[in-house]
Amino acid sequence: MNPARLIERKRDGGELDPAELSGFFAAYLDGAVEEYQMSAFLMAVLFRGLTPGELDTLVDFMLRSGEVLDFSDLGGPRVDKHSTGGVGDKVSLPLAPLVAEAGVFVPMMSGRGLGHSGGTLDKLESIPGFRTGLSLAEFRAGLVENRVAMIGQTDEIAPLDRRLYDLRSVTGTVNSIPLIAASIMSKKLAEGLTGLVLDVKCGRGAFLREEEDAIELARTMVGIGATRGVPTTALVTAMDRPLGRTAGNALEVREAIECLMGGGPSDLREVTLALAAEMLVLGGIDPDLAPAHERASKLLDSGAPIERFRRMIERQGGDPAVVDDPDRLPRAPIEREVQAGSTGVVQAVDPLALGFGVVELGGGRTRLGEAIHPGVGFSWDVSPGDEVRAGERIGVVHARNEGEADRGEAILTQAIQIAPDGTSTREDGSSKVRPLLSHRITDERVARIRI
Fold it and tell me: Among 3, 91, 183, 373, which is least packed, fewest CB within 10 Å?
């Protein structure tokens, strides 16, 4: 096999047969294909895509590259959720213990920050002592005892995906539909699930900005799940503004704890409950979405899921006292308030600017294996459509030093777009925002959600 020739063929739009594509991936795992060659291949895929046959080969090879778990002995439904990533997306943290409290086993395997998008593992690891690098035996024990465990990808599970995931994050090859689909589904299919729910983000802060692309990705992943015997449902949710009111690892854990206590931002609660209802239906807890949503809402308000979250933290080596005292979470030494520069109406809160801003402040990675600073980030007080007055606080920058606080203030001021006369300042000339939940995709159909 000549790696350069395969890369050239994919670059020029050719199709690679299963044997040579599998051989290329195997050679990469063995070290015969260099990182720079795989980077070139990923860039070719970004521009040329993968055929259905190539995508099947990639998913199957990723699965075969590691262990496929069998949790059938747990004696109950096993349903997970995955988000395609966005800014302020801390949904997994309240969602997993909530659904576990309702009687579903939730074996959640998550990732780290990817590009401008925050990662669940980085959020969890901002809890002092919390371990995401559990062995599979520890993973199983957490499920047996608490019905929920949240871990990172182990060496045993889809090792090809783990390496490609890290490489995509630093080579500008994140927003490829087939690469996203293969990455997500290979990990999830390896978890031994009986059902899967997908949160496909759409908008400026998502890896896919256009609605048709988000739907295409959702249909691709739902189809992969269906053909491999894992019933899969996807919701398309908005990412033309950040979710909730914080971006940054420890800040988002605080907000997740608020949600688990029945509070927190309304959009975070709404997305959490919508995904929970889908998981409860796939898990056979409720026959359809209406009673499932009602059950999840009552559970969230009861406070019971926060205790399951507390037990998970303790089981995985973290400090459970953060649940009662979030001030035990890491905090940035500088917390600078930012005021509105003019009176008017908030037209947009730019998630992309805030996401890259968190990375710039040290809360994300620009190189493989780079350490991050869990306390930095942004919090904001306004949403699109809110009226503000000049001098009113619109947010806070959480930074390590005054210089970074200066830069963060500029980022936050630019991200929160205010039109003094109420006219639009949005890039597309529109003042409209996407519906928080827009589409539901199953193996049978694509349906618009009407709220």
Answer: 3
